[in-house]
Write a structure and sequence with these properties.
This protein is mostly helical. The chain has one domain. Helices cover 66% and strands 9% of the residues. The protein has two helices and two strands. The protein has helices spanning 6-28, 42-63; strands at 32-34, 37-39. The radius of gyration is 15 Å and the shape is elongated.
C-alpha cells in the first residue's frame, strides 16, 4: 500500500528552497549581517549541501524508496 506523505513533501520543499536561497547567495555574493556580525560565505556552502541532502532524502522517503 502506497500512502501519500504530504508533510514529508512539504518539508522536502522547504529544504530545497533553503538550498536554493544559499545557492543564490553564493552567486550574488549577498552579505548577511546579524547585529554586528557578518555571516561568512562558507556557511552557505554548508547550507547548500545540508539542504539539498535533506530534501533529497525526504523525497526518497515520501516515494518509499529508502532502500540501498
Amino acid at each position: 500500500m502506497n500512502r501519500s506523505k504530504p508533510f514529508t513533501w512539504i518539508a522536502a520543499a522547504f529544504f530545497a528552497l533553503a538550498a536554493i536561497v544559499h545557492i543564490t547567495r553564493v552567486f550574488t555574493h549577498f552579505q548577511i549581517i546579524v547585529g554586528s556580525h557578518t555571516i561568512p560565505m562558507w556557511c552557505s556552502y554548508i547550507g547548500i549541501i545540508v539542504g539539498a541532502f535533506l530534501s533529497w532524502m525526504l523525497c526518497r522517503e515520501a516515494r518509499g524508496t529508502t532502500g540501498p
